[in-house]
Amino acid sequence: MNKLSYYIKKYWYAYAFALLCTVISVIMDMVSPQVTKRVIDQVIIGGESGLLPSLLLMILFLGFGRAVFAYLKELTFDFTSSKISSMLRKRLFIHIQKLSISFFDKNNTGELMSRVKDDIDRIWAATGYVGMLIFEVTIHTGIALFFMYRLSPGLAIIPTIVLPVVAGLAILMENKLGKVYEKISEQNAKLNTVAQENLSGVRTVKSFAREKFEINKFLSHNKQYYDLNMKQSKVFIKLYPYFQLITKILPMIVIFFGGRKVISGEITLGTLGAFTEYSLNIVWPMEMLGWLSNDLAAAFASYKRIKKIFAEKPEIVEKENPIVLDKVKGSVEFDKVCFTINDKKILTDISFNLPAGKTIGIMGATGAGKTSIINILQRFYDITDGEIRLDGVNIRELSLKQLRESISIVMQDVFLFSDTISENVKLGNRKRISKEEIIEAARFSQTNEFIDKLDDGYETVIGERGVGMSGGQKQRISIARALAKKAPILVLDDSTSALDMETEHSIQKALLNVKATKIIIAHRISAVRNADEIIILEDGKIIERGTHETLLKEKGYYYKTYLAQYGEYISTTDALTRTGSDNRGF
Fold it and tell me: Which of 441, 530, 540, 580 has the smallest number of Cβ neighbours within 10 A?
């Protein structure tokens, strides 16, 4: 991660210009009391009325100049901070995208959304208006003190003593608020997660009549978020009145001691007027210290959390100079592959050879390790032992981009983006896939049956995650998406589970004509029976392998599954056959 200082240095010229504008603006503001001094001493007391027009014009000029440079200062700060936050947000999102699946296994969506949005916004504020005000407060205070000492060193001691007290209070407030902000941000992430999960799964919540439970869960997190914000407010309320008290007492003390000096003739009335104006001008920077400490504490807490994400490294990395195949044919070989995650054995000694253009079926009970085979083939995780080869090359030697582009997958858990059907189908290769190819893929997957009935056809916008569509419709769009990609390897992970038998049969028949290496994971015999080889997994091990016919003869797991799925049909057929034979006998 590039440190925040890197971005500030990158735009040093903009900050230098903004700082220059701030200095000029503040100087013009601080010169005004000097004009006020002359108006009192020379015009009102001295009777030099001829000076009044020129002094009034000077006040007007100083006011106009201050407004112009203040505008340029704010514009530059806003533009620069927007640039920095945009770059930081972009790099954070890119970094998150590059992290391995294991990172997302440990971090929830709501928390990551808080980092990308809320935490970057706080840094935006720190490099923008908060930073601008810190510059302005510092310069304003310094120049005001300079003029105060020029007017009356004796009176200037009063604000000089007060300033360190105010600074000490600001530091104390920042330290106390920093700890609270850490907890507030963490609770904000949890609150976002609960809200995001409930809104995404609102149909599940309603179908199980869990509204009351989910509301209570949300209210519980909301209460914790409220309590932390109240704790923050209590810290602020305890300390902030001290800032206000000091800033109200300061001008009174100045007028009291300054008035005595005017009476004794040590300073003029105009000097006291100017000094009082400076003391009032130095009040708002002191008050701002409290607010700035508040915002700065939040920005530092956010920056720490963002740094933690940038410190995360992807577990899956490709070689410095990976192999890029001229053309991927699609042969896949697993050679004594073992896979362990979190000290739990998922796969043990998995071996099979799938030539290009052939089909393998994978069956097994839930949790047997079927989907894990696909995850390690795409290098979402790295295997702990053995070797996986694509066209004879170890996939660890290949470019991750080429490896994953070579595989079209229909996931068991279908995910559709909130976009048109056309854009969802083109997801595999938006630039290459034509309208004709989208229609062809839709025809193969039987998706055209319901798309043609829609008013906007292929340009119909799908709701979030496919809301408004049946499970079968979403699966068919997902199959169309995989087919349109035309990758050399096609993976179907329980891809027809939500389809009716007739549609499933039509799609499976169409898939026989698809020229690709196919890996079919399924629970239904109908999905794998035409495969060149079928392997049966149990507890991460291959317990049976062969063709449909050979596995039926072995009368093992596959045979039992076959009976479970087709037993009633077989019994009915046998009964009809026997009845037919008896009738012929008569």
Answer: 580
Are 328 and 395 contacting, i.e. CB atoms less than 8 angstroms apart?
no
Reference 542, options 319, 403, 264, 337; nearest CA is 337
Burial 369-395 (b: 16+ CB within 10 A, else e): bbbbbbbbbbbbbebeebebbbbebeb
Examine the domain organization and report whether 63 and 148 are in the same domain.
yes
Structure tokens at 538: 């149990």
Owner of token pair 């108006």: 39
In a domain, 77, yes or no: yes
Verify that 203 and 335 share a domain, yes or no.
Answer: no
| Encoded tokens for 382 | 């790295």
Residue ending a domain, among 277, 311, 345, is 311
- Domain assignment of residue 575, yes or no: yes
Q: Which residues make beta-bridge pairs with 337?
A: 350
Q: How many domains does the chain have?
A: 3
What tokens appear for 275 in the block?
A: 């000094």
- Does residue 121 lie within any of the structural domains? yes
C-alpha–C-alpha distance, residues 57 and 339, integer Å: 82
Q: Is residue 497 part of a domain?
A: no
Cα distance between residue 236 and residue 176, in whole Å: 9
120 and 241 in a single domain? The answer is: yes
Q: Summarize pLDDT for 61-104 with one digit per residue, the tens.
A: 888 988 999 899 989 988 988 888 888 888 888 888 888 888 88
Query: Per-residue pLDDT tens for 231-242?
Result: 888 877 877 787
Indicate if 540 and 568 belong to the same structural domain.
Answer: yes
The SS3 assignment for 14 reads helix
In the numeric block, which tokens belong to residue 248?
A: 């109200």
| Spatial CA neighbour of 363 closest among 197, 135, 545, 167 | 545
Domain containing 369 equals 327-406+517-586
Instruction: Tell me which DSSP letter residue 518 carries.
Output: E
Radius of gyration of the chain (CA): 37
- Residues 393 and 429 placed together within one structural domain of the fold: no
C-alpha distances in angstroms, 304 versus 34, 185, 310, 345?
A: 46, 11, 10, 36
Tens digits of residue pLDDT in 558-576: 999 888 887 765 555 555 4
Count H helices, E strands: the chain? 22, 10
Residue entry with tokens 């039992």 = 560
